[in-house]
Design a protein that fits this description.
The complex is a heterodimer. Chain A is built from 21 helices and no strands. Chain A is an all-alpha fold. Chain A is globular, with a radius of gyration of 20 Å. Chain A starts with a helix and ends in a 7-residue tail after the last helix. In chain B, a hairpin with a 2-residue loop joins strand 3 and strand 4. The longest helix of chain B has 18 residues. The radius of gyration of chain B is 13 Å and the shape is globular. The relative contact order of chain B is 0.26. The chains are: A mainly alpha, B alpha+beta.
Chain lengths: ~425, ~110
Amino acid sequence: MENAILKSLEFSEKIKYRIMYLYSIAFILASFLFDSFYGLVNGLVHIAMSPTLLLTDYLAIGGIGASLLNSGVLMLLTIFIARRNDALMNGPLIAAVFTVGGFAFFGKNIYNILGILLGVYIFSRIQKDHFTKYIIIAYFGTALSPIVSQVSFGMGFGVFPGIVLGVGAGLVIGLILPPLASSFVRFHQGFNLYNIGFTSGIIGMILMSVFRLSGYDHSLNQIIVTETSIPLLVLLVLYFFSMILVGLITSKNSWKEYRSLLKNPGRLVTDFVSLHGFSTSILNMGVLGLLGILLVSLLQGPINGPIIGGIFTLVGFGSFGKHPGNSLPIMVGVLVAGLIAGLPFSSTGFLLTVLFATTLAPISGHYGYFAGILAGFLHLALVSNLGYLHGGMNLYNNGFSGGFVAAFLVPIFESYKRERNL
Amino acid sequence: MKDEKSKLLKIMNELVRFFLKAGNHHINIQMDLDDHEGVIILEGCCTRISDKQIRELDSIINSPRKDEAEEYYWNLIGSNDFSELHLLGALVNDGEVGYEGDNLRIKVRRKF
């Protein structure tokens, strides 16, 4: 009986992995529509050797084709490592793979993530534990990959010493991330979906403070594309639309199950794949992807690298806590705050906050729409004040901010509830 | 391995929370450990719980263990004001739920 269950589980895992492989290979193949082989290789080299502080748009550094290739290769690598370690393709893993794929458009590349992955792997060996238990931390932990790039290519050490020191910095980060990530999750009680973003913010803040103490400092980057490429936009729309199709084709009850998914508060740890199935989860991911594109288009923003990263993170967490019901109130909160502050809605920085603020989706899911709008409002106020602390070296700056907002609001909301939870 | 006792303690806390939420006034707890696994058994009365909740709980504690989420999230379980039954399901290998009259008995097993 147990074998039969395991066999059916294995079969289903095979299909899930194949679908994930297809989505990564799709980007690799699509890259050849945008550039020649030489152009792609040249673009990848430029991407790998650039300091990648926030905001560095890889569409501007290496071109659309190389950015797509970078994203596809990183997703393929993360899926392959997960398969080799017999990890279940569930919500947290899907979220991690798509987050890595999204940030491969503005900050992560094949060079700067490897040291961190290796560091977490060594940590698991030191603990005499299986790497599978740490794989999510390793993938999300690549949020700090700009530190590797900055030490390697942005601090004037020279190429060889820079690479040695940069990779060494990645290893150290990988060695300290797991205990910190596990500990900091209690700070926001699971109401900040980008928990590693908060952890990475603390690490980045401490490292940057040490850098500044030693006399080193740098300014933040602002290398972004301001025009939307229509072929890229069409590709992304097809990509997300295909997710909806996959969800509908592979299950007869997808829409019915989807209504059930929409009732979830989404607090960590809400694995939609385990609770509602892979089909419903990928349907939700596709819906969120199209919602992200629609929102950016309505606000007349560009579809550039960082924005694609924001949309992909929204999509990834469509299997792990986010859905339109708990995400939209947060977005409305950011928009209201932006309106009052007179911020330009079409700017990349503002749109990124709208997309990434959904890290706080569990607050609206758990405490209601108004709580979500308030959380979004506070998030916009706070997020712009935190980038300086880590010198733009934590790619998940919104996760850093979201941790503080959640830790600030949740105890207050809990105190004024009529009944204490159990 | 060194966190195994802490994890068992948190799993126990989560189960105690479940019993309290189900209206139990008397709860007996038994924990057995050896080098390979830990077993926790809770028995309590006087439980107010529906058959649907019993089925859900049985399904959760017998769902496949999910190592991927373990090191990232285990600190959430049994440590705050929120139910983490699904996370409990990800941390245990299997279990049993028995409900007779108004007495509830839950057994979970976690291999090291």
